[in-house]
Amino acid sequence: MLTVTDLCCARGGLAVLTDVSFDVDAGKALILRGPNGIGKTTLLRTMAGLQPALAGSITYPEDEAAYASHADGIKSALTVTENLKFWADVHGLSDPTGLETALERFDLTDLRERLGGTLSAGQKRRLGLARLGVIGRKVLFLDEPTVSLDGFSVKLFADWLQNNHLAGGGVAVIATHIDLGIDAPELDLTPFKADPNAGGGSDEAFL
Ligand SMILES: Nc1ncnc2c1ncn2[C@@H]1O[C@H](COP(=O)(O)OP(=O)(O)OP(=O)(O)O)[C@@H](O)[C@H]1O
């Protein structure tokens, strides 16, 4: 479902990664590994179409991608339920069928009427991840999805990923430094580090 071929990407005008290639079949995940600064975020953003590639190609079904960064994207003045409806609406789903499931899987049912701004950091992160369950996107690019989560919540996320998203035919590429406990191959990006003198495009929008 996702094919990356000879991809080269850049940040701040400098090439970061070069000649990255892999496939991810429907129902599968790929874990991106590598030290801080190697280019995991850059690769995820490039694959999600948020910045241009320097070279190479990325293919997946049209309008199926979603990118989730470190930021939760929570609207403080909306309740938990309203936040999920808002994000579903942004993706063209005015009546999201997965809303109750997302609330349940991310242990948010009891918090459904709470304003987003009153949630703890971990609860906000759970709500940020629950968004993924209501937007109807099959190809997920996830950047450190478990930041701020305790062990119980990491397992909630891993279970949702495995039993809902992947079991439903989705794919996920996940940059993480922790063990999510899911059955997925890992790709260490260290060997793909680009020569910094190779040049690159401008990405001022993400400075
Ligand atoms: N705006 C910018 N201008 C210049 N260089 C940048 C900019 N943003 C990131 N970089 C550099 O690009 C490289 C790749 O950064 P990136 O955030 O993709 O790495 P990462 O593997 O996700 O790191 P981490 O594990 O710390 O999150 C790093 O060397 C970083 O310093």
Structure in words:
InterPro entries: AAA+_ATPase, ABC_transporter-like_ATP-bd, ABC_transptr_haem_export_CcmA, P-loop_NTPase. Residues 2-205 form the ABC transporter domain. Keywords: ATP-binding, Cytochrome c-type biogenesis, Membrane, Nucleotide-binding, Translocase, Transport. It comes from Yoonia sediminilitoris. This protein is of the alpha/beta class and 207 residues long. It has one domain (26-50, 62-188): Rossmann fold (3-Layer(aba) Sandwich). The protein contains 5 helices and 8 strands, in the order βββαββαααβαββ. It has helices at 40-47, 80-90, 99-105, 121-130, 151-166; strands spanning 2-11, 14-24, 29-33, 55-59, 65-68, 139-143, 171-175, 186-188. The strands form 2 sheets. A 5-stranded parallel beta sheet has the order 5-6-7-3-8, with helices on both faces. Helix 5 (151-166) links the parallel strand 6 and strand 7. The longest helix is centred in the C-terminal third of the chain and has 16 residues, at 151-166. It starts with a strand and ends in a 19-residue tail after the last strand. Adenosine-5'-triphosphate (ATP) binds next to helix 1.
Key words describing this protein structure:
23% strand, five-stranded parallel beta sheet, alpha/beta, globular, binds adenosine-5'-triphosphate, 8 strands
